[in-house]
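Entry: NAD-dependent epimerase/dehydratase domain-containing protein
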Amino acid sequence: MKKVVLSGASGFIGRHVAEELSGAGYEVYMLSKGETGVPAVANAVSADIDLFDYAAVAKFFGSVRPEYLLHLAWDTTHGKYWTSDENFRWLQASVELAASFHKNGGRRLVAAGTCAEYDWNYNFMSEFTTPRNPKTPYGICKNALFQLLESYSKLKGLSFSWARLFFLFGPYEKRARLIPHFICSLLKKKRARCENPEMVRDFLYVKDAAAAFRALLDSEAQGPFNISSAVGLKLGDIVEAIAEITGGKELIDYTVGAEASDQPLCLTGDNSRLIRETGWRVRTELKEALAQSIQWWKDELAGSGELK
């Protein structure tokens, strides 16, 4: 059985990736600081590792000696991570993680990047034709990590892929984010305001993103790949689709927020390279993905007593 270390296993994306890898026959070592929130997954072992404790990280890799590393862990505190100085700590810790992996026999590394690495003056972003011009500490540090890991992997002979994520949604997403906010508000029969409904974003169901990570890990594909749907959807259309399933269209207010002036109207990602080199496909239609997300939140709200 192939051994893979998964960092960020208790996060929104990580828990779905853990299930995907386990289902594909990997022996998964799930890293998380504190075991709260780590999913119970077959063929998986959880390890309480502080990734800023470099000695503990090196000791762990020395004992496990995995062939694969899938690195997702990062600070994603909602409303703060774009400009947080924690990005610089995670940049350093991520380089140390990769070095420990290589020194202990690691062969293939896949790590998570972001569409925020790109120049957002371009509406449709491709890996080798769209310039990278990040404007925030988050995007700058992710872009720097890509360059460092790419260079390190070439120097050390590591197989390396970099996954640039666009706008994911699904179970376990933070409630304050766009799609969970509208789902929860409408399920609770509360008014919700949709600012800038004409903005276009590239949304992808998190379970499809997890499948993309598994496809990259399975392959020998090298370099950067967009994990995206390649379909631009207006925010207003997403909100209306949620309202069609939950009911409550009359509860939505549409406005143009002050932040619209410094936000790009359209952000979408070209996923053709990922499809061509790994065989991955989007497997969940938008309405089905929203329905699954809504059902998950309905169960969560009912369990917490928030639904009357």
